[in-house]
Amino acid sequence: MNEQPQDNNKKIIAIVGLLVIVAAIAIGVMMSSQKTDTSNQATSSPTPSISASVTPSPTSNSSNPSSGYKDGTYSATGTYQSPGGRESIDISVTIKDGAVADTTAVSGSANPTGRNYQGQFINGYKAQILGKSIDDVSISRVSGSSLTSKGFNSALEQIKSKAKG
Amino acid sequence: MGAALELRFEAIGTAWSVEVYEPVSRAPMSAKIKHAIAARVEQFDLAYSRFRPDSLITRLSHQAGRYELPADAQPLFDIYQDLYRITNGAVTPLIGQTLSDAGYDAAYSLTPKPLTSPPAWDETLTYDFPHLTLHQPALLDLGAAGKGYLVDLVSELLEDHGLTSYCVDAGGDMRYRRLDGPPLRVGLEHPADPTQVIGVAELSNTSLCASAGNRRAWGDYHHILNPHTLTSPRHLQAVWVTAPTALIADALATALFFVDQSVLDGYYKFESALVHSGGSLQQSPGFPATFFSAT
Q1: Chain B residues within an 8 Å CB radius of A159
Q2: In chain A, % of residues over pLDDT 90
Q3: Nearest CA of chain B to the CA of A91: how many Å?
Q4: Is the confidence at residue A154, as pLDDT, over 70?
Q5: Residues B153-191, buried b or exposed e (16+ Cβ, 10 A)?
Q6: Could you report the predicted ipTM of this complex, rounded to two decimals?
Q7: pLDDT at A77 over 80
Q8: Rounded to an integer, what distance in angstroms lies between the CA atom of residue B180 and that of residue A124?
Q9: Closest Cα of chain B to A158: distance in Å?
Q10: Which residues of B touch A151 (CB under 8 A)?
Q11: Which residues are CB-contacts of B159 (< 8 A; sequence separation ≥ 6)?
C-alpha cells in the first residue's frame, strides 16, 4: 500500500484546527453577547488566540482511496484567552471510510464560567437526538420515564378507554 | 452482571430492582437484608406518602401545628428548602394540593379541577429540624426528591450490612457503587419512543435520575407543575442528572425544568443532559454518556 501519511495528517490538522477555531470564536461571541456587567469590562472582549495541536490515533491502517484519510480518531486542543484566564477545549474527529463519522467536543475548562460557556457551545454543536432500538445496544438497564407504577398506568388506560367509549 | 443477590418489588409507585454484586455468603443474611429493605421502604412510605390516609403527610394536610419530623427527614427537607430559594419558589413541597387538584391524587382520578397556586413557604411553614410547624394545614408533595432519597436510604442500608458493590434502581432512577468491576451501562430512553435509547451512560460510583413529561401525563398536565403558571412545562422532553447522591440527582432533574444549569452550578456538584422540545440535546461537559449522532 502506497500511503502518504504526511499529506493525510496535514489535511486532518486543517479540519480539526478549523473546528477548534470555530469553537473558540463561538464561545467568544457567546461571552460577549451574554456579558451583563459592561461597566468595567466593556473593552475586554475575549480573544480566541488559537493554538491547536493534533494527535492522530488511527484505529486501522487502511486509508480510503477516494479521500485519502486514514480511519481513526484525531483530537486537538484549542486554547483561547478569556476574561477569566486561559481556557481550553478538546475537539476530536472520527474518520471512518474516509468521511467524518463523528465529532465531539469536551470542555477543558476548570472554572464554572468557562465550563458553562463551553457547555453551551458543545450543546449547540451536537445536533438532534437519534434513537437506536434497545435490542441493538448493549446495556444492562434503562433510565427514562417509562417505568411508572401499575396503578397510574391502569388508571390512565381506564380513562382513555372511557374517552373512546 | 452476575448479581449475587437480586430483589425486585413494587413500592412508592414504581418498580424497584436491587442487585448486590458481591457474595452474600449465607442464606439467612440474604433473607435478613430483604426483610430490612422491605421494612425501610414501608417506614418511608408511611411518613412521606401523600396517597396514604395513615401517613404523616396526610396528617399535616388535616391539621396545623408543630410536628416532630422523622430522624431521616433532614436531607429531604433541607434540599427542598434550598431549592425553593434557588428557584424562586418553582420547586416547592407545597405543590401537593395543586397536583392533587390537577388529578394526580390518591385515587389517580386524573380528572383536573380548577387549580389554585400553592401558598408561599414563609406564610405556611417554619422548618427547623427536627421540627416542622404548619401555620395552616398543607398537603405537601415530596415527589421531586423523595424517590431519589429512598434510593439513597436503601443503598445506605446495604452499606450498613457491609456491602460495597450494588445497584439500587427505582424505575430508572438509580445509585450504583462498585469498587472493582465494570461501569454500569444504562440506556437513556428516547423521550418519544420507549423501545429506543438515544445514548448510553456509563456509571461508576454515582447516581443517575431522569425526569420526563411524556409518561406520567394526562390531559394538559404531567407530574411536574409550575406553581406560578399552573401549567406543566413543555419546553423539555427529558432531563437526566448524575450526582453523588440520588437525592441530589432526583431533585435537580426536576429543578432543571425551571432554571438553567448555570443557576444550580454554584450550589451542587452534578452533570446533566437535557432534550429540548424540538429534539435537540444539551449536555454538560462532564455528563458520562455517549449519545448517538445523526451521521
Answers
A1: 110-111, 218
A2: 1
A3: 12
A4: no
A5: bbbebbeeeebebbbbbbbbbbbbbbeeeeebbbbbbbb
A6: 0.84
A7: no
A8: 36
A9: 10
A10: 13, 108
A11: none
